[in-house]
Every structure is written in structure tokens, then in C-alpha cells.
Amino acid sequence: MNAPERHELFLLGEGEKKVEMETITQVANAALFTFNKEDHTLANMVRDKLYRSDHVTFAAYKVPHPLFASFQLRIHTDGEITPKDALVKACRELITELAQLDQEFTKEFELKKMAANVPNGGLDI
Description:
38% of the residues lie in helices and 22% in strands. It has helices at 40-51, 83-117; strands at residues 19-23, 30-36, 56-62, 70-77. Residues 31-103 form the DNA-directed RNA polymerase RBP11-like dimerisation domain.
């Protein structure tokens, strides 16, 4: 097939950067970020977090080609913060939310395991 090996889609090559930033000169406070070796999963989460930010006026992404794991994220801000700062803030908030989700999931999973070890799930029937 023409598709690259699955592991090559997510491992960075020699001298390859995870994120590259390009300032957009046609619009004030705008930048285009290219994420290498990432796909729609991260793109949609980051775009949604940016969209909900007070200082971001525009956030959208596109995937240039479906066979290659990369996407371009365009961010416009109101000038209070830079697009780069908005992206960093959004990523930090996502990391916090995902850590909370991980804790809640682990807690519920452990409780489910404990209930499964008790006859009748702990119910006296």
C-alpha cells in the first residue's frame, strides 16, 4: 500500500519539530501553527478549548492530507494575548482537565473492581 507504517505516523523524525509557528502578516494578532505527527483528536480538543477562550476571536484547523498525521491550527486573538500564549494556555487547561478525567476514571474503575470482588456486588439478595 501507499500508506506509511502506522508507527511512523507518530514518531518524530530527525530534526523534526512537534509544533512550528508562522506569523500571519495579513491579519493582526494571528498565527498558523503546524502540528506534526498529530491528528484530529488533538486538533479538535485544542480548537474547542481556544474557541471558548475570551481573548480568541478565531480558531480553526485543517488536515492537509489524510494519509499524513499533521494539522494546521489558525488562531486570531483580540490583542490582549498573543496567539502563542493563547495556545499555551489552552494546552495547559486541557492537560488539567485530562488529568482530572484520568483520576475520576481510575477511581470509578477501582470501585467497580471492589464491587465485583464482593458476592452479589455487595447486595444482600
